[in-house]
Amino acid sequence: MENVSQPPQYSNQNGVSSGGFRGNVDAFGELDDKAIMVDDEQFGQEVDVDGGVQEFDRVERELQHMDSADRHERTRSPKRKNSVSTQHLKDQGETEAPPFDLRDFLETSVRFSDEHKLGLRKRMGVVFKHLTVVGEGADASQIGNMWESFVGIGKALNPVSWFRTTSKGTDFDILHDLSGVVKDGEMVLVLGRPGSGCSTFLRVIANERKSYRAVKGVVTYGGVPANQFDRYAGEAIYTAEEDVHYPTLTVKQTLHFALRTKTPSARMPEQSRRNFRQKVVYMLTNMFGLTKQINTLVGNEWVRGLSGGERKRMTITEAMTARAAIGCWDCSTRGLDAASALDYTRGLRIMSNTLKKTTFASFYQASDDMYNLFDKVMVLDRGRCIFFGPVGRAKAYFEQMGFLCPPRKSTPDFLTGITNPNEREYRSDVDQAKIPHTALELEAYFHKSEDYKRLQQDIADYEAEVEKEQPYTEFHESVMRAKSKGTRASTVYTVSFGQQVKALVARELQLMTGDKTAVIGKLILTIIKAFIYAIIYIKLPLNANGAFVRGAALFSSLMFNALMSLSELPNAMRGRRILQKHKSYAMYYPSAYHIATVIADIPGIFLQVLAFSICVYFLEGLRSDAGAFFIFVFTLLLASFCMTEVFRLCGAVSKSYFSASQAANIILIAALVYNGFLVTLDKMHPWFKWISYLNPLFYGHRALLINEMRGLVFPCTGYQAVPFDAPGTNFYTNDLYRTCTMKGQRGPELVVLGQDYIADTYGYTDSQLNISIIANLLFWFLYIILNCLAMEFVDLVEGGYTRQVYKKGKAPKQNDVHEEIKVDSARKDGEEKHDVFASDTSFTWQDVVYTVPVKGGERRLLDHVEGWIKPGEMTALMGSSGAGKTTLLDVLAKRKTIGTVEGKVYLDGKELARDFERITGYVEQMDIHNPGQTVREALRFSAKMRQDPSISVEEKYAYVEKILDMMEMTHLGDALIGDLESGRGISVEERKRLTIGMELVGKPKIMFLDEPTSGLDAQSSYNIIKFLRKLTDNGMPLVCTIHQPSSILFEHFDRLLLLARGGKTVYFGDIGKGSRKMLDYFESNGGRPCSSEENPAEYILQVIGAGTSGGKVEIDWPEVWQHSSLKQNVTAELNQISAKASNMSRNPKEDGNAKEFSTSMLYQMVEVYKRMNVVWWRDTTYNFGRFLNALFVGLFNGFTFYQLGNSSSDLASRIFLVFQLLVLGNSVIILAQPQFMQQRAYFRREYASKFYGFVPFVISIVVTELPYLFVTAAVCFGVCYWTAGMETTAERGFYFFFLLMLYLFFSVSLGQMVAAFSANIVQASIINPFLFSYLVLFCGVLIPPAALPGFLKWAYHSDAYRYLLEGFVTNVLHDVKVVCNSEDLIRFRPPPGQTCGEYLTPFLQYASGYVADPSATDMCGYCQYKNGDEYYAVFGWSFGNRWRNFGIFLCYWIFNIAVAVFFTYLFRKPKRIWLKQLKDRSGLHTKVADAVIKGLEKKNERYQMG
Question: Are the C-beta atoms of 1411 and 1420 separated by less than 8 Å?
């Protein structure tokens, strides 16, 4: 084992010491990291655990001196403590400053801590005895589908089932009877194959127990039982293997935020919080080689940022900021190269030694160097511990048992291989029958061994030591001292609630500025929409019509801002897994996160409302009073705040975006119906009237209406007073015998005061204005509190824990001994039965240069890379993290969509044809799969779409089974792929295997593999590499990047392409037997000799200076390569191929035979539709959500407008009933968009490999939706139509149902169209209110067509809803005989001596309506309409246009589909080729074309990021 007593060495080119940190300060008050970034050509050294003690002592003295000097400088000039110039830093870097030293940094901190009693060390060992974790068996749940859901509902409604107990499945032991002890400062390596329980063990040690059925046994932390250690959450943390970060934050922003929430109160004397953060960030970024990337976006699968390896280091670095006493690291080296993984492990070792941290880690493919840094090792097999003890004892223990470790096989691989019967090797001098084979036998052997007895004694000794020393006391005091001022002693958090909110607000603002497009776009759309509203309601008149339209304008303003609030729902669902991770790190209260989002939203919502109000208020001609304007703005602002919080609450209590959308839409429907405008208080159904009193929009509309109507006078002139004269007549001149058509007239004068109008129409009084505003303010506070409570107590995230879900009856037994013997035997029998296929294809690339646009210019990621892959050759692509390995594969595989690629790439000496992507297999680093399929279904789909169509389906399926067997996934064939977010599906490691299998079943001619073994255990990696070797031996050329190859794996490769940072070639050539040719090259050019025990793959990475800090080397290896004879030979051969290709004319016949897709368009359509149908059938949340929405909308509207009569007000209610059904369309729009975007993400991945085209994708998703929308329409129609008392004739009902069904078809297609040209759901949610408001505003209901300005008439005629509503309204109102009730009659006195009939006879000849009692002489009762036809005649609508409208609306649906197809095509995979063709074919002026291309490139990049 290595001596870990010496300090590691880091390069410090900038002279930044640990004693006092100086640097430029940016606009946010933080250090400008650009001033301290390491120069591109200068790299630090690897972590040197074996440095010198004398050097450490010297450095310590210098650091203390520097710290003292720094404090003196700050005291002397506090204003300049962080204002040293960049040049000064450079000058410092030129002095003889000591290199940055991790161990030195930590040791110095600890000594200062001890001197000042800061309590930096938290000595908490862990003891676990008879630990058993019980999980839910795979048979406890099954893949759900629509039928099973209907059956489940039926059973739930059956009273007999209420008293029947049914088993939910078989529980099983994930972990069984584990015991061990880990003292403070010790490190334990947990080894085992996937599924052995390593992750579960780490989770339970980190005290994360909620995911399991039961946890039995004893776990203590420094003597503290696990159930009491909850009060120290964040002191035992679990870091999962997947990387979860905000992709649009930079490394610097992410780390500084984490440290703001974990900065201890007890720090060095004179050390500020900012200074502490800067020093720690500097230490961690140097430690993990992220100094140069500190201002780079973190990124993810869709957002360009850090490389995969760099992102993994980012995850580790963030976890380090938690300062936990106990760290559990789950496969944290996945995606790191061997040198970086070793550096990371050394860093853990140093921190464990200096800070006395207790460390647990599980690594796949760990090297011997990494293994020897640990103190103890635990080997798990199917949840049973088969060894726990010192690392130096493990190998000998199993060798004494009878197993054999082959030469050059690493000890971790040997120990993991013991758990795999197919990998085990036995000593020749032992009887294999007497050696334990199953997990149960191996566990029993260990329990009988002397090692187990020593373990029990160690446990007893440590418990006695803990009892004596009481480390808990020191630990508790350390935790208490770390808490900042104002932080409660009982809380698990380090900083106070206010400081958490402050840090979170800063982060939220950074996230907003990181997505400027959405923020600015939202504001622009708001202004545009405000102008449209203002133009529609421009200069509202002060007459009877103006009073109603004023109410409509105010309602529209509220509705638009409510819809804009609904667009915040995706943001409310954002970052759940990040929140869960930070909660486990005890960084901040979830409620603090919500408070921060509320605060951060205030400026944005204020700007949105203010911009809207300025545009709308004055152009609409609302009351000209400054106080009224500010009340208008404040009321809209409060209503927006309230609705935003309501929709956020939906997200806080919902498991998925679909569930949250459904709940939000139901609430929006209720809020719009019961806001007091569409249905006034006196007309509300008693069952639902209470909704208005809990509705912020009700109080908002009441306040706006009272504010607007105060002091206004509405004269009744012309047609606004009845009876009125027709043009050219003069019958009704005496106003004493006329009356206003609007409510609120007092006295004989034909005028109505605004406050009288709202009193008679709505029941509002002036005194209710302040009450309404205060009510909304209180509602806002109430919803904030409810959100905070939901955030704190509703846990909806599984945190990356996945549970396999199988088809009904297909779940295998788990951790069963007999099942283990049967499965392993089947694997052994089938191991050598895998067929392979031949290929004689060669692939070459020469002088490949790849540059990408960056701020301020361009960056070259690949620098004249060249090489080839030939039949029978297996090429390894290696280099440090960030060297450009994945970038090179993306370029070669034609997957890059931005930037510029130069160079020559040939397939069989010819230029690449259109079928290149289809005939090549590319295993990408990111595992992107459709979660609604099973593993077998996904592989079969790939085989059918990519293999030659001449091969029968039976043969394709048989080949799939062979691949499943080879990948050791036969038992997962019927398991749902699922996703990590929901926690249902296959694990991260199983997804990687599936990604490889998806390419292999396509029988490609060339294979590109990006880290195919990353995250896999040694045996799985060996199986994959061995299979790839078989493919190679049969003629298939392939190249794969590989990060941590063992010596055995590395020997399978023929050639190596080694890249240095900057995408520069270091070596391309044969590896040779025993790696001799490769090693000779490096040794002959100045590299140190490689020992016989050393792993050649790790050797070359160390020699060229790979690792987390890019260890400094004296030799410029890229330059050596440029002048080597090997390079000249490679160039000469490539030149010959290039010359041959130049002389070879393309054969048009061959080009014609090169098909982009393997199968025909019709076949693609059928297969994609079948696959999509299966996915939809299983997506019960999405489909049942729509059914429930339809049920709610139908019942809600049916009972709100229950059994409508035939009075004139009932005619308006019939229109409002139809109008409210439009909200159901908005609901399905919002639900359809995330579904479309998810499927589009999978389509893009599959289209890149030429599975199928864009037309089959869009048509299939459209057709798949139709039967579900049919059911949705039927549900809504069935509970609404007759409940509301609509026309009961069959023909009318048939038309209503079919038009409703077509409306849902249209709505989904509209949502898909918007989703097709939106980069992400946030952008779509911003566009939705704009479109929906346009469709609703110009449909003719809120404002009659005649009232529209002339230049906006086109908007009415182009509005799809105009034809929809004409069809609906004329259908439900035609031939309806109107009988006005007493409230709807307009009453006035006739002249003396005349009956009402006599007085109104001339009037009724040109006006609609009738007289209720023609013989009356004292008071006339006039009803404005005789039938429904007269009512809708004012809109210019006709019953005879119904089927014409149906046809026009059908055309709108088809148009939406066509636009969706177009944008799916446009953004299927944006290419530079397409942009160049635009320029070549357009004939535009060069500058114009270049400008268009540049804009499209930016748009395309944004779509890729989305």
Answer: yes
How far, in Å, are 99, 165, 612 from residue 540 at the CA level?
A: 75, 66, 17
- Of the candidates 1258, 751, 993, which has an alpha carbon nearest to the alpha carbon of residue 195? 993
What pLDDT sits at residue 1147? 56
Burial 1400-1417 (b: 16+ CB within 10 A, else e): beebbeebbbbbbebebb
3-state secondary structure string across 1088-1125? CCCCCCCCHHHHHHHHCCCCCCCCCCCCCHHHHHHCCH
CA 714 remoteness from chain centre: 54
Give pLDDT, residue 76: 38
Distance from C-alpha of 815 to C-alpha of 823, rounded to nearest angstrom: 12
CA separation for the pair 1172, 1261 (Å, rounded): 7
Describe the chain by its helix, strand, coil percentages, rounded to 5. 55, 10, 35
Distance CA 1493, CA 1505 (A): 18
- Residue among 1118, 1125, 1090 nearest 1104 (CA): 1118
Continuous segment of H or E residues that includes residue 1073: none
| Residue whose C-alpha is closest to residue 678's, from 766, 555, 564 | 555
Q: How many angstroms separate the CA atoms of 981 and 751, rounded? A: 63
Residues of the chain with pLDDT under 50: 1-100, 119, 799-800, 826-827, 829-835, 1470-1506
d(CA 1226, CA 1307): 7
C-alpha torsion sign, points 312, 318, 320, 325? negative
Residue 862 near residue 889, CB atoms below 8 Å: no
Nearest 10 degrees: CA dihedral of 1161, 1162, 1165, 1171? -120
CB proximity list for 96: less than 8 A, separation 6 or greater: none
Predicted pLDDT of residue 1107: 60
Decide: residue 490, CB within 10 A, 0-12 exposed, 13-18 middle, 19+ buried.
exposed
What is d(CA 83, CA 1379) in angstroms, rounded to the nearest whole number? 83
Q: How far is CA 1297 from CA 4, 104, 842, 1262, 1309, in A?
A: 78, 77, 61, 20, 18
Side-chain-side CA neighbours of residue 927 (13 Å): 27
Residue pair 295/34 in contact by the 8 Å Cβ criterion? yes
Q: What is the DSSP string of 1354-1369?
A: HHHHH-HHHHHHHHHH
Q: Is 1222 exposed, middle or buried (0-12, 13-18, 19+ CB in 10 A)?
A: buried
Q: In sequence order, what DSSP letters do the residues of 931-992 get, joined into one string?
A: TTSBHHHHHHHHHHHHS-TTS-HHHHHHHHHHHHHHTT-GGGTTBB-EETTTTEE--HHHHH
Q: Which residue stretches of 1006-1147 are H helix?
A: 1018-1033, 1047-1050, 1076-1084, 1096-1103, 1117-1122, 1125-1143
Kindly report the CA angle at 797 between 796 and 801, in degrees rounded to 5? 140
CA torsion 1001-1006-1010-1013 (nearest 10°) is 60
Is the CB of residue 543 less than 8 Å from the CB of residue 550?
Answer: no
Q: How far apart are the first and last CA of the chain?
A: 48
Token pair, residue 36, equals 């301290």
Q: What tokens does 247 get?
A: 């992709």
Query: What residues have CB less than 8 Å from 600, skipping those under 6 apart?
Result: 505, 508, 509, 512
Q: Report how far apart, in Å, the C-alpha atoms of 248 and of each of 33, 254, 584, 1467 are.
A: 18, 10, 22, 22
Type and span of the H or E element at 1006: strand 1006-1010
- Whole-number pLDDT of residue 824: 54
Q: Are 1242 and 1147 in contact (CB under 8 A)?
A: no
pLDDT of residue 290: 82
What is the rounded distance in angstroms from the CA atom of residue 1293 to the CA atom of residue 1273? Answer: 13
- The span from the CA of 266 to the CA of 478, in Å, is 9
Longest pairwise C-alpha distance within the chain: 131
Strand order in the sheet with 236-239: 224-225, 214-221, 126-136, 171-182, 384-390, 376-381, 187-191, 358-362, 326-330, 236-239
